[in-house]
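Appendix B. Chain record.
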Amino acid sequence: MEKTIHESQRPNILWISMEDTSPRFGCYGDYLARTPNIDRLAIEGRRYPNAFSTAGVCAPSRSAIITGMYQTSIGTHHMSTSYTNPSVPDMPTPYSAVLPPHVKTFTEYLRASGYYCTNNEKTHYQFDVPFTAWDECGSHAHWRNRESGQPFFSVFNPTVTHESGMWPNEDKPLITDPRQLQLPPYIPDTPMIREALARHYDNIAESDRRIGGILGQLEEDGLADNTVVFLWSDHGEGLPRAKRWLYDAGIRIPLIVRWPGQLESGVAEDLISLVDLAPTVLSLAGVEIPFHMQGSPFLGPNVQPREYVFAARDRHDAAYDRVRAVRDKRYKYIRNYYPEKPYQLWIPYLNRHPIMKEMWRLYAKGQLEGVQQILFRSCRPVEELYDCENDPFEIHNLADDSSHRSTLERMRLSLDEWRSRFGDMGDIAEDVMVAQMWRGNTQPRTIAPVIVPIDDLHPGVDIFLDGDVFMEPLLIQLHCATQGASIGYTMDTGDQPQWKLYTEPFFLSPGTTVLRTKAIRIGYQESPENEATFVVNPSQ
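Structure tokens predicted for this chain:
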């Protein structure tokens, strides 16, 4: 059990976010894996074998992670908003999804409570990253840049395990022996396919090396004992019938959490969704969880166990699709909204994959056998039901099996309840949804903030002359008329200032100060800057 968190002991929090990775680690029983650093983290921490993403692809998943809300609830479910779709020529692309006005990146709540928040460096949230989300976001972002003693929330994103890492690379000889691999039954066994998957194992090993470096820095700084470390992947591995799909190969992820002295090591069978990460971090940091968040904390003082996890598949590249899934600890239910569609839609990026190329070649020659033909069927069942405990590759559809009728009805109902409770913007055509968000085809813009000086002679009015002389103490209030906008400010006159998050009125020191401020609502353009020069005389 976790010990009670005291306000005086707010932990640092470190996320290590991998890409396109199913649990092919030694600590998950894969003895071909070379993952000593990850395995040590698992020994020292807690491993969650029942952890799942909300999508089988990165951007929708990451939008759920950064907001604590399902992508289907906030219009970030299509992959991706930066893709120019020739089938909808009037739709603006790229577009930044406009979220409800009360929705923030959860890091703003951490920043407001005093945490130094950094991201190094991947985002892919389906909306332009608001400048208020991070103290630092980029290749140099690091907890080491914070003020002395300030608690931090830092994210590192090793990206070497992306599916593109399986592409042929003559300059990078294989280390993993392709002959030792075990392939899923729906993947043909050819030398090209084995080589591609062997590259993935090599890339996991390279990620492990980088992860060891990050953890080593934590130890060098003497921070390991008071830092909660999370390691996870944004979705499952980049294989056909895995990435982009809602089978376990596409949404089951590794999840390890280490918190020395607070969290007992071992294995927890709890069902976890990546939408739970945001409220869990807020809970650990002692920050109240906003009511609109749809995830449930799985650590901290307000743990809410899950009975189900949910996932969604929508457009990929130009190919529209709509699939929804719900899973408990044993069963998976999948609903295909376009049962008339073939499994293989035209997804150009997927067709570049060496394994997909090989499967197309074999299909064209009529050389795919048995379950290898699943991905080339001309239509889909309306419903799919799998016993994931006894059928881990989800091959045998039980939806028409009368002995599983009660399970089917229960899972149907749970999916319907989830859609009813949180909404599903997949019900809306994408071009119509974007037109509603953007009020047509033009991205809305945040209104510039108003700077309001308050002293004995200026009782909170917003009309003053730039360069007016004020008496100490001078209090500054900022206001933005755009509903839901966040405001940042700085006294730095350089080209790359450090923007502070405005949370409450603040005092200006005596002397001359150039105050700059701007605002942003998620999905809107940034506001213009407002700048004012204040001359503050010391009080007599």
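Further analysis of this model is presented in Appendix C.
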